[in-house]
Design goal:
mainly alpha, Glycosyltransferase, 2 domains
Length: 428
């Protein structure tokens, strides 16, 4: 019996033992036999542990970018971001279909080839607007959002996962669902742009309509992604990928609509995903065991963890309240070791699926989508003495690809800009 058939039986039989929901119901002898037979043919689903402190309630949300305000106290000339004109070509993306999955990407390796085209200007224009008090950039951003709202761009861009991505460890395998993941990242970037420049956007005559368009995209696309992974039904693939499997995206959505209850719901979802996939030694199930891309995917996973940590800290919470802080810092330690000695890190073997053995698709160095943790936890990394500190220092002080967002959206990317701009006099 395949895993998919097994899950179908358990969803359709209310009296079956529901492992994925952590609920124990009555189970008859026949169902017990089905359970034992199914489990003998696939990886056992780990029960979701009760996380201490998950009933902590958020009473109100901090929606201001106060953590970043120290940058605004600096003169414009000290921030190299403000010293050149925006180079993006907005006219190439001002028109976007309701369903862009029909025209974007295709294979497993096409990840990022499409969403960066739309996401990169959103991040750069919003950062310039905030850091440089650049209303010209914000006007261009507003025109883009108005055009997309009028066309209802991206709102129907759902391509259902069919298990084809990286099937048979083939980088050229058809991968329809990557397209929906990319659209979710576009709405993440829109949400972030609004939050970072909230006072400006809320001064616009049509700000409610623009905000409602972004919120609708979050509700349709981002929530779809976050919910699809919420009960671990993608096991035995698993792992922590884009935006904490979009728990982070829904936390940003909660800030957009200013709803503490929505924030708490998706914080709990993120905590469950953290607890389920991050092992006690800091390795991440699937991510850290994917062969020639295990270094890269561990970095992507730790990026999501670091962003999640920041998002709840801005609301006065902490991973320590849930017994997850130690695992978090160990995941950072593992990332430092991974990028310092990639081949050794790859030698752990495989867990999950999508094992990559070929050198063609190998990634062992820092890229825009696997290094946010390096900037977010800069002080810890520098003081740790772990790994190749010269390598880390070089990556932190380099401004290369600073607007190539990869999977970085939300507050994390601007923390990277903050760290880079601290060294702007040396790299300008």
């Amino acid at each position: 019996m395949t895993y998919r058939k097994f899950m179908k039986i358990f969803r359709e039989r209310p009296n079956a033992y529901r492992v994925i929901n952590g609920f124990t119901g009555k189970i008859n002898i026949f169902n017990a036999l089905v359970l034992s037979f199914a489990m003998s043919g696939c990886n056992t689903v780990r029960p979701i542990m009760q996380i201490e402190g998950t009933n902590i309630e958020t009473l109100s949300l901090n929606r201001d970018a106060t953590f970043f305000d120290h940058k605004k106290s600096r003169t414009r000339d000290d921030i190299f971001l403000c010293s050149y004109e925006f180079q993006g070509q907005i006219e190439k993306i001002v028109i976007a279909d309701m369903d862009i999955t029909k025209i974007s990407g295709g294979a497993s390796l096409s990840w990022g080839s499409r969403h960066i085209l739309y996401q990169k200007p959103l991040i750069e224009l919003s950062a310039r607007g905030y850091l440089c008090d650049d209303h010209y950039s914000l006007k261009k951003l507003t025109a883009l959002l108005r055009s997309w709202k009028k066309q209802k761009s991206f709102l129907e861009s759902i391509a259902v996962a069919d298990g084809g991505c990286w099937k048979g460890s083939n980088p050229n395998a058809n991968c329809a669902h990557h397209k929906t993941e990319e659209v979710a990242l576009i709405f993440n970037a829109m949400t972030h742009a609004w939050l970072l420049n909230r006072q400006y956007f809320e001064s616009l005559r049509d700000h409610k309509e623009l905000r409602d368009y972004i919120a609708l995209g979050n509700s349709k696309i981002v929530r779809y992604q976050a919910s699809r992974t919420g009960y671990f039904e993608n096991y035995p693939s698993g792992g922590i990928y884009a935006q904490m499997l979009q728990s982070n995206g829904m936390l940003l959505h909660a800030l957009l609509i200013d709803d503490p209850r929505v924030f708490d719901k998706w914080k709990k979802d993120g905590l469950r995903k953290f607890n389920h996939w991050v092992e006690k030694d800091g390795l991440i199930y699937n991510n850290s065991y994917r062969g020639t891309r295990s270094v890269h995917y561990h970095g992507i996973g730790v990026d999501s963890l670091a962003q999640f940590k920041r998002l709840i800290e801005y609301q006065g919470d902490s991973l320590k309240n849930y017994g997850l802080e130690d695992r978090y810092w160990k995941s950072i330690d593992q990332a430092m070791l991974a990028f310092s000695q990639p081949k050794r890190f790859e030698g752990k073997g495989f867990k999950g699926k999508n094992h990559l053995k070929d050198e063609f698709s190998a990634i062992r160095d820092f890229r825009a989508d696997n290094r946010a943790w390096l900037f977010l936890e800069r002080a810890y990394i520098t003081n740790s003495g772990i790994g190749d500190q010269e390598l880390f220092s070089s990556a932190i002080n380099s401004g290369a690809e600073m607007f190539n967002p990869g999977q970085m959206t939300g507050w994390a990317h601007n923390n990277i800009l903050s760290a880079i701009s601290d060294d702007s006099s040396r790299i300008r």
